[in-house]
Amino acid sequence: MEVYDNRGRDVAPFFMQMKERIDKYDYICHIHSKKTKTNDHGDDWRKYNFEHLFGSSEYLKRVFYLFESDPGIGLLMPETYPILELQAEWGGNQEGTAALLQKLGVQAELPKEPVFPVGNMFWARTAAVRKMFTYGFTQKDFPPEAGQVNATLAHQVERAWIYLIASEGYSYRKIFNHCQSRNTKLQKKRRLMAYVHYDKENRISKDDLKTLAIFSGICEKVLFVTNSAICQEDLDHVDRYADRILVRENTGYDFGAWKDALFDFGREQAEQFDELILLNNSCFPPVFDIREMFAEMEGQDLDFWGNTVSPFSPDGSYIKEACIYEHLQSYFMVFHAKVIESNVFWEFWEELPECTELIDVVAKCETKFTKILSDAGFTYAPYIRETYYISRFLNNYAVPYEKPCSLLLLKDAFVKKKCYEYMNAEEKVRLEYLLRYLEIF
């Protein structure tokens, strides 16, 4: 342990500490506490980088395997924290980075859009980055701490690593921790799921059957309700996973279907369960092990939860309301016994308005449900914390449809089927790459 003056952020102490030690090691990892005071995501950003740099012993073995199997790799870094995708730019640091590289004897033609470990956390082969440590930087080369947010030597060092290793004949690779968490052991609970299906072609897809198979593995009973006139052959496939099947007319969308499924099953029977899962088939089968998600949320003192949250909006014109209340997005919600046994929960379903338009379901059902339960004293939270603010940072309020990769990198298990109708070609290529990567590893 060594103590340094508060000058040069994480970079100057890194140089000072390692300049005499760099030749003693083959690989080096740089991490820091990431106390970003200018925004509300510093803690989440740090946790994200830590998970994808070490995370577990199994994952570390894979990290070192990448280095050992490919001597040309000089640096491994996490995918950019999705909240900061728009900030992964030069930000006025291009000239300073070029000047820094020249000091190191590196002549590099810097691209219009930089590639760098955003947050300055990474694994590196010491031979690839040695020049940065042996140049002779001292803390006096860095400006005194004054709360600077950009354009300092530390910001330029952060943006120089990739071009430094390239000059030494090395490449970089972005890494993602897909190793199964140790925490996948779920509490012994009686789980009931009501799964709503709709398909305009009146078919059950392989994706829907796979989703049913996955969730039936953690649920004691599965209620399958469809708003489509599906054939008996498809219903026979569903019967392998569902304890009860309800075929209904396509009215009321998913909320109307959940209402019918719940009252068909009965309040008295439903109250015998510890958890109720409401899920529709708007997403592909879960990309990640759902046990990790359930295990993590079981560790929180909540009455109900979902995967993502839509934050409060003072502009409710989209749904013809004065505002849009903060709400859990309804494609996936989980309710604990305290909620299931409450009158307010069942009164919501009894008083559910008949909706003939999707926008009315959003306005009168989805955006109201969370507030009704919250006003009754029930606590909730989303699994993907960053959904509280990701739309604001990406300047995009259709992230699940237009930027699915951003959520996938945050361990969002649910990819919306309709994203293929909205995302651009670049995002589609990136999504397919990430999905293949996750299948391989």
Task: Give an account of the 3D structure.
- The chain is an alpha/beta fold.
- The chain is built from 20 helices and 13 strands.
- It has helices spanning 11-18, 42-53, 57-69, 94-103, 126-134, 153-158, 161-167, 206-216, 232-238, 253-265, 267-270, 290-298, 337-340, 343-350, 358-375, 390-394, 399-402, 404-408, 419-422, 425-440, and strands at residues 27-30, 73-78, 122-125, 171-175, 191-197, 221-226, 244-247, 275-280, 304-306, 309-310, 327-328, 332-336, 380-382.
- Strands 7-6-5-8-12-9-13 form a 7-stranded mixed beta sheet, sandwiched between helices.
- Strand 6 (221-226), helix 9 and strand 7 form a beta-alpha-beta unit.
- It starts with 10 loop residues before the first helix and ends with a helix.
- The relative contact order is 0.10.
- The model has no long low-confidence stretch (mean pLDDT 94).
Nearest-integer average pLDDT: 94
Helical percentage: 25-40%
Give the class from helix and strand content and strand pairing.
Answer: alpha/beta
Span between N and C termini?
Answer: 36 Å
What distinguishing features does this structure have?
single chain, 441 residues, 13 strands, seven-stranded mixed sheet
Summarize the helices and strands and which ones pair or pack.
Elements (H helix, E strand, L loop, with lengths): L10 H8 L8 E4 L11 H12 L3 H13 L3 E6 L15 H10 L18 E4 H9 L18 H6 L2 H7 L3 E5 L15 E7 L8 H11 L4 E6 L5 H7 L5 E4 L5 H13 L1 H4 L4 E6 L9 H9 L5 E3 L2 E2 L16 E2 L3 E5 H4 L2 H8 L7 H18 L4 E3 L7 H5 L4 H4 L1 H5 L10 H4 L2 H16 L1
Parallel strand pairs: 2-4, 5-6, 5-8, 6-7, 9-13
Antiparallel strand pairs: 1-3, 2-3, 8-12, 9-12, 10-11
